[in-house]
Specification:
single chain, six-stranded antiparallel sheet, 27 helices, globular
Amino acid sequence: MCGIAGFINYRRELDADSLGDIATRQGDAIRHRGPDSGDVYVNQALGVALSHRRLAIIDLSPAGYQPMVSADGSHVIVYNGEIYNAAETRAELEKQGIQFRGHSDTEVLLEACVAYGVEKAISRFVGMFAFAVLNLKEQKLTLVRDRLGIKPLYYAVSENDFIFGSELKAIRAHPACPHTLDYDAIGAYLRFQYVPTPHSVYRDVKKLGQGELLELDLSRQNQTPVPRAYWSFHDKAVAGFSNLRSGDDREVVGEFDELLRDAVTRRMIADVPLGVFLSGGVDSSTVVALMQEASSTPVRSFSIGFDESQYNEAKYAAEIAKHLGTDHTELYVSPQQALDVIPKLTEMYDEPFADSSQIPTYLVSEMTRQHVTVALSGDGGDELFAGYNRYPTAERVAKKITWLPMPIRQSLAAVWQFIPTSVWDSLFKVVPSKHRPMYAGDKVHKFAQAFTYNEDDFYKRLISIWNHPEEIAARGSEIPTMLNGNTLSHELPSLLERMQYWDTMMYMPDDILTKVDRASMAVSLEVRVPIIDHRVVEFAWTLPRNFKVRNGVSKWILREVLYKRVPKQLIERPKMGFAVPIDQWFRSSLKEWAGDLLSRDLINRYGLVKPEPIERIWAEHQSGNRNWAALLWNVIMLQSWCEKNL
């Protein structure tokens, strides 16, 4: 895993030293992504500079150094990622007479781009990647991001320069980086807790989307680059849903088992120590089981735990590790250890980001990096196999509300919200603890607010932090996303598939994968995600519903693969999120820090949100009657970002 950056100076007024100095500063800004080595490539005649920071994983020798020039001297590449089927492509290229200098996947990717062209080359590869390849003959620079958006890639257009980098800090290191805030993007952040692609917190800095490439003609000045898709998740999802698999359970599960085993095994190739995150849930347990099956020695597994029982899955992870025979390491995190991470978050995430599970994700990455350089993760199972709790919730509500007249729905919602959350909490005490939701009253009120929506709008409400960002944003409105003016229902008539689609297009790359990438790369740990191998994704979208949800149980086919290797009783329990007790900390150890960031003076200084609604929910949260932790964390992370960057 690595970090890449670079720029084009269209007017070509910079000398070679200046080009190199700027590119070096860009690389230094993301040194954490590649602490092993770094270098730059400069072409003054074309006004191009490329920078690379290396975390050596495959071919640790100098033959794997970047920026890398092709054997014929026609192309130069800077690359972040891993190609898991590089050996097959290398063999094909060797038959064509290409002689390789080392055994890195970088060299295979580069020579494939020379031999086949960029787009045909990447169509051959299984992997995660973000790279820039310079074609010296055609004077063209091409940026590429992997199919599912696992690896990040930002770019910016200024008056005289095109700038790109793995993280925003690499673009900010360029003196021409545009710094105008995008207030509408901040409005979207308030809703989603992240800035959705292709936008960033800056108006003239964009994110390249999943499965997209961007071509720039070096002979043209003042270009407005337009990304285009080389692989479309939309097309794959719609095509799969339109041509669902037939076959009995045994046949389909067997095919899936083989495919997933291949995806996991390919991601175990490394020239450095390798391990795996183990939370004890279905997804990570499946990855660990398949890894251990493919390994002749105990796999290194890692988990973290909390003393607060409602947040702790470590005990389950330990049982699974014992059953599988892994070499297991766990860390029970003290509140102080978790709190010590918080000051690092703004620097780590570059732009406002408020998924509080960023804290335990960093902690497990930090602990894992003390033992290995590469770790596999189970991310993606919820999106592909309908694992989120909100899916059955939304479907149940949709069935109930479609036949109820709107006046009745409005009346019921008013009654539910009239009853205080504390009363709802008391009423839910009759529910057995293992089935009782945390903060039941808050969930009932959130449900009631969404009860008057249609089914798609209800889903949008379920995933919204602030349901009406315009009521809190002091400036701008809210950028539209694919959730606005939805036209997907004619292609995916099932609400379940639409929710999976939206989560795979937005929540997974912009929240889950961003969270994991920044947290892991902050400690120079490479994380690989086999469940979202694009072949697995395409397979999953050809599955009839009952292979995902059966008898009220989600991830049916994934569980079938797991239960061949792990006893069902070790897995069957209510789903837990990867969370920390932020709600409690806001009333104790974080109270002073959070209160300062939410003070009227500081809110007015930056002018991005209105103080009155913040003061109200802060007081309600402190009273203990309401849990506004998600909303407060959302604003606090925005204010913290402002403190560092404005």
